[in-house]
Amino acid sequence: MKTTAHPSSTPDPTPPGDFLLATCQGGAEDVLARRLAIALPGCTRGAWRRGAVSFKLPPGGDPSPADLDRVRDELVFARALFRCHGQVHWKDDAGRIDALRARLPGARYDAVHLYPRDVRTMPTAELVAGVALAAERAGLVTAFPGATFSTAKPGDLVLDCLADSDDRWWVGWHRATAPSTCWPGGLYPGAIPGDKVSRAWLKLDEAIHSFAIEFDPASRAVELGASPGGACQRLLEAGLEVVGIDPALVDPVVAALPGFSQWRKRARDVQLRDLRGFDWVVSDMNIDPVSSMESVGRVVTAPGSRVKGIIATLKLPDWSRAGALDGWLGEFRGWGFRPRARQLSTGGREVCIFATRSGGRRGAARGSSVSRRPPGADRPATPRADR
Ligand SMILES: C[S@@+](CC[C@H](N)C(=O)[O-])C[C@H]1O[C@@H](n2cnc3c(N)ncnc32)[C@H](O)[C@@H]1O
Q: Which of 5, 79, 172, 339 minimizes the number of CB atoms within 10 Å of its CB?
């Protein structure tokens, strides 16, 4: 999915709003606040709810849409990020829309997204499918004729209505740019087809669309932590030849697909010479992130490695481990890659890192933690051993 912006004639609202509002997975609020303090110094934390945090911008602080794109990237754990004009609170829809009109300076929007704050109960595809219906029920479709009420296009001016409760919305706006900013609430609208063997298919599908990843056909990929095989299915559908590494058996449906083979062992037990012929590394092991990093590092720094792209999921046994993220991103750079990170809306307590070869250095291990640990078992992702 390309992110070429179309020239929207709809102007930015003025004044733009004194607050930023970021939504996130429930539990990530503190991590988000810490990252925002670094990405946009001078902001102060405002209201806090499970899955949403508001921040007061410093006096005179007026981030441009380009600044917000950078901030969104650096936040990693934000789903939606918008300029916020506060709350509208009314017991019925008509009153709430009047309050919304009084609160917001802009009259015209290309897209209107009404989405719930707490998204624990429903798959994101169902949530996004319900967004247009919710907007119609709430009277927004009549109030904003001509707007889109589902996925926006890059360049669109989007009115955000974050439903905190039945009668209370946080309201504001953002300019759609990157793919996830086009999705209502930053929630991936893709659904998982019935023939896929695991939800990892959808997670990888979201990563591919979120980072606009393009695979050269006939590339070779290795997945560390491949069973039961949903992500391998997605890679095969993209035309790649795939080796799945996992001590657990891959689903027979996937095992039988042309272009697929499994190595039934732990990633760290694969001989270095066997790790040479891959263009892509995908990693999704349910082990401690430090152990995952070591295994990914072994593949990309193996002598003769030709890896040009990495899609690595690092599980976070608890939220405090998110503090190590910038160090892990530094390790990717040390291996000669340009990393970007995002907590996917279809994943759990984990972070997805997409990295491409930055050119020049191949297989460089400087700055990495590869081989720092003695040979032995990987650390499990949870304090309780899960393997
Ligand atoms: C979340 S599941 C992977 C789901 C998979 N990506 C899919 O598409 O269905 C985690 C997998 O990591 C595997 N795993 C755990 N430790 C591993 C290791 N050291 N090497 C390889 N696989 C490992 C587990 O056996 C488990 O199948």
A: 5
Answer with the residue of higher pLDDT: 385 or 306: 306
Q: Which atom of ligand 1 is nearest to the CA of 227?
A: 27
**Atom number of ligand 1 nearest to Cα 230:** 8
Q: What is the pLDDT of residues 58-92, one digit of tens each?
A: 888 889 888 999 999 999 999 999 999 999 999 99
User: Domain coordinates of the chain in residue numbers?
Assistant: 19-186, 200-357
Measured from the CB, is residue 288 less than 6 Å from ligand 1? no
Report how many helices (DSSP H) and strands (DSSP E) the chain contains, helices first. 11, 14
The alpha carbon of 218 and the centre of ligand 1 are apart by a number of angstroms equal to 24
- 311 ligand 1 Cβ < 6 A: no
Ligand 1 pocket: which of 197, 285, 314 to mutate (most atoms <8 Å of CB)?
A: 285
Average pLDDT, the chain: 90
Asked if residue 6 has pLDDT above 70, the reply is: no
Strand order in the sheet with 44-49: 44-49, 52-56, 19-23, 81-89, 168-175, 157-165, 111-116
Query: Has domain 19-186 been given CATH number 3.40.390?
Result: no
Chosen CATH of 200-357 out of 3.30.70.1450, 3.40.1180.10, 3.40.50.20, 3.40.50.150? 3.40.50.150
Crossing angle for the helix pair 29-39 and 65-75, to the nearest 10 degrees: 130
Percent of the chain residues topping a pLDDT of 90: 76
Model pTM?
Answer: 0.92
For residue 366, pLDDT over 60 is answered with no
59-62 contact pairs (CB < 8 A, 24+)? 62/16
Per CATH, 19-186 and 200-357 having the same topology is answered: no
